[in-house]
Specification:
Elements: E1 3-7, H1 10-20, H2 32-39, H3 45-48, E2 53-60, E3 65-72, H4 75-81, E4 85-93, H5 97-113, E5 118-121, E6 133-136, H6 153-159, E7 163-174, E8 190-194, H7 200-214, H8 226-233, E9 246-250, E10 253-262, H9 265-271, H10 279-289, E11 292-300, H11 309-323, E12 328-335, H12 339-347, E13 350-362
Parallel strand pairs: 4-5, 11-12
Antiparallel strand pairs: 1-2, 2-3, 3-4, 5-13, 6-13, 7-12, 7-13, 8-9, 9-10, 10-11
């Protein structure tokens, strides 16, 4: 069957996974508006800061898009870590080797045109947002902000010269099991400042600074500017449950943060990730029946490491989440080279949910 590679079609970029994957794959798209905003050269700070990008969709005869990919530079990553790397993201494709080849060749051509020596992905538009390609756990239901892909994608990448590296694990914590032990933070010195709509700008700027500080030495991390953080986190104000997210302060000084939100995947599936006439009804139904939450990130300032704040902060948050009526909590990913964090999840009755890897290819 004839395949056509098309560049720059943002509507087809949004639609491609719905045509590429059967429902059993469990793919859930971000909102259509968010995808279009990410691709907009005038709105995404990744592009307005001077990083080049191109994106493609592959279409079957008749026009239906059955695959997509974006290729881009993150110059800040290359400068900070000494790389000469282009990145690809949003690699989604039907079980069609020729469609995969067209998409990956296009991304590789971009990397070569930019003078890069390797192509690495998935990175869905920032260095520390959604990343990885799902390589295991395909039978498990994902949470918001987790990468979901088809089981044939890793093989397609390898068939086109890409090799897996940097394994990661997503996780799920069952709150219906034994209650966690006491948190252990002295209330005379530690307070949990909830993130509400009324305090959103102040708390989120504290969250950004704590993320940048606590993750400073993590592999691949690049500190986020205020503009980048607002672009990624701004919409959280409409979906936050103040019982889930907080900034932890020690004697009034921010030392830790947990950002957790209700899992949106049921709502997104019901609306097909679009705003329509029935969206308010679906959103109300979701608000009344939410039982799953997801940890987006958590961080403790480097100066406060070694005091047990991270464990106590997580335990207290899980206690509050359970009291709010949630039954499970998902976590987006932990690198396998971080065994301490993986052990921490196990202590909280967590289990591995999915396996992810990054994939890379040297560019001649």
């Amino acid at each position: 069957m004839t395949l056509i590679l098309r560049e720059g079609d943002s509507e087809a970029f949004f639609e491609a996974p719905f045509h590429a994957y059967p429902p059993v794959i469990g793919y859930v798209s971000p909102m259509r508006g968010d995808i279009l905003r990410m691709l907009d050269p005038g709105k995404n700070p990744l592009w307005t800061s001077g990083n080049p990008y191109r994106f493609w969709t592959v279409h079957r005869a008749g026009g239906a898009p059955v695959g997509r990919i974006i290729a881009h530079l993150h110059r800040q990553s290359n400068e900070r870590w000494g790389w000469n790397r282009a990145q690809f993201g949003f690699f989604d494709c039907a079980d069609d080797p020729e469609a995969a080849r067209l998409l990956l060749d296009a991304a590789e051509g971009f990397a070569r045109d930019q003078g890069m020596s390797e192509l690495v992905g998935n990175f869905n538009l920032t260095a520390m947002q959604q990343c990885g390609v799902m390589t295991g756990g395909f039978e498990n239901t994902a949470y918001t902000d987790m990468i979901v892909g088809a089981p044939w994608l890793p093989g397609m990448l390898q068939a086109n010269g890409f090799a897996p590296f940097f394994p990661m694990t997503t996780f799920e914590i069952d709150l219906s099991r034994a209650a966690p032990p006491p948190a252990g933070l002295d209330p005379a010195h530690f307070t949990f400042a909830p993130i509400r709509k009324s305090t959103f700008p102040e708390r989120m700027e504290e969250a950004r600074l704590l993320l940048n500080d606590g993750f400073h030495d993590n592999p691949m991390f690049v500190p986020l500017t205020a503009e980048e953080f607002r672009f990624q986190a701004g919409e959280l104000s409409t979906i936050l449950d103040p019982r889930l997210s907080s900034v932890v302060k020690q004697d009034g000084v921010p030392v830790g943060v947990i950002i957790a939100i209700p899992d949106l995947n049921g709502f997104l599936k019901a609306t097909r990730s679009r705003i329509g006439l029935t969206t308010p009804w679906h959103f109300l139904r979701y608000r009344m029946n939410r039982k799953r939450a997801v940890l987006i990130f958590y961080s403790v300032a480097r100066a406060a490491h070694g005091q047990g704040i991270m464990s106590a902060m997580l335990i207290e948050t899980l206690r509050r989440v359970r009291a709010a009526g949630y039954e499970t909590v998902g976590g987006t990913w932990i690198a396998d080279e971080n065994p301490a964090s993986l052990r921490q999840v196990e202590k909280m009755n967590g289990r591995a949910l999915h396996k992810l890897h990054l994939f890379r290819k040297a560019i001649a």
